[in-house]
Amino acid sequence: MLTNYSCLANSMQIIASCNLTPEDNCLGLLPLYHIYGMIVVQFSVLLSGASILYLPKFEQETFLRCLQERKITMAHLVPPLIVFLTKHPLVSNYDITSLKKIFCGAAPLGADITTDFLQRFTHGVKLNQGFGMTELSPVSNVDFTCTAGSIGHLVANTKGKIVHLETNKVLPPGEEGEYCVKGPQVMKGYFNNQKATDEMIESDGWLHTGDIGYFNKDGLVYIHDRLKELIKYKGSQVAPAELEAILLGHPNIQDAAVLGVPDDAAGELPKAFVVKKLGSTLSEEEIIKFVEGRVSSTKRLRGGVQFVDEIPKNPSGKILRRVLRTKYL
Fold first, then answer.
1. Do the record's keywords include Transmembrane (predicted)?
2. Exposure of 199 by Cβ count < 10 A (0-12 exposed, 13-18 middle, 19+ buried)?
3. Which residues make Cβ contacts (< 8 Å) with residue 32, sequence separation at least 6?
4. Nearest 10 degrees: CA dihedral of 79, 85, 88, 93?
5. What does each of the 329 residues of the chain score in pLDDT, given as a tens digit?
């Protein structure tokens, strides 16, 4: 549950970090039903006095023509669009040198693709990454230093810490642990689910993001892994357990697990690890089609299927995902 206060507070926090002016022309491409499109783009831009030009959907030439003809100075984008701008030959046909600032969020943006982007566009455009989640209304970090791979510093009036995964002890710079955040943007809680709320937010207000990372001596935060099991595909959350349940419903599948595998364009892709029943001739294509017919587009097994001899589990039957990742990826 997000409150009017948390959303307004986060809008003001974003404004303090993004430094927009009434002279900025911003691109509105992200859906307004998504927290990124609603708070980060719509509210924060308009409260800054800047203007927004909305496109109903992404189409390559329309997108590029808009950047060129409307002299867009700032755009909120997602990693797949950064990949498009970096690699697609069509981009060379357009003049987008009016674009001075890009903020990328909703999914991780790799340091390599950031470097490649800046090597293609040398007119002074700044590519900054941010970090957030719906439970944070949604932003906690914005990188205004153009440090490849970093999610940047904390936004105004926000505290952050890295804690040990087992002891919850606060860790010093350079040591990896779970990233925790505290500030006015933290959600009120999960609707009608006090247990889930208490598991995520401590009694003193610290929210556990479920992400593994570290911060350096300058306060820049880096996120490297996910403690939580949710797979983030193009900003949408995909629950492995849901896909595993579907897979286990197939008559020729003995056991299954799903992990997110890194992808430059989408962030993560769901990949299935499957133990076939003895004597089964089940193929990867059959499994992909089986799942595809039972889920929404964002939950398809775009990372593929890998057949394995067993799914590692602990004595209580919980899948050991880290062991699975280490063994097969």
1. yes
2. exposed
3. 38, 41, 42
4. 160
5. 999 999 999 999 999 998 899 999 999 998 898 899 999 999 999 999 999 999 998 899 999 999 999 999 999 998 878 888 998 889 999 999 999 999 998 777 778 788 889 999 999 999 999 999 999 999 999 998 989 889 999 999 999 999 998 899 999 999 989 999 999 999 999 999 999 999 999 999 999 999 889 999 999 999 876 777 889 898 887 888 889 889 988 989 988 999 999 999 899 999 999 999 889 999 999 999 999 999 999 999 999 999 999 999 875 467 888 899 999 88
Residue 102 burial (C-beta neighbours within 10 Å; 0-12, 13-18, 19+):
buried
Handedness of CA 245, 250, 256, 259 (dihedral sign): negative
Give residue 315's identity as a one-letter amino acid code. P
CATH of residue 92: 3.40.50.12780
123 and 17 within one domain: yes
Q: Please state, in angstroms and rounded to a whole number, the distance separating the CA atoms of residues 47 and 187.
A: 21
107 and 157 within one domain:
yes
Identify whether residues 127 and 264 lie together within a single domain.
no
- Residue range 92-144, pLDDT digits in tens: 999 999 999 999 987 777 787 888 899 999 999 999 999 999 999 999 999 98
Structure tokens at 322: 């880290």
What's the distance, Cα to Cα, between the start and end of the chain in Å?
A: 36
Phi, psi (degrees; rounded to nearest 5) at 129: -105, 150
Q: Are residues 155 and 172 in the same domain?
A: yes
Q: What is the pTM of this model?
A: 0.74
Domain boundary among the residues 186, 204, 226 is at 226
Quick one: 259 and 201 in the same domain?
Answer: no
Peptide bond into 31 cis (omega under 30): no
Domain boundary pick from 181, 211, 226: 226
Domain that holds residue 315: 231-328
Q: Are residues 242 and 187 in the same domain?
A: no
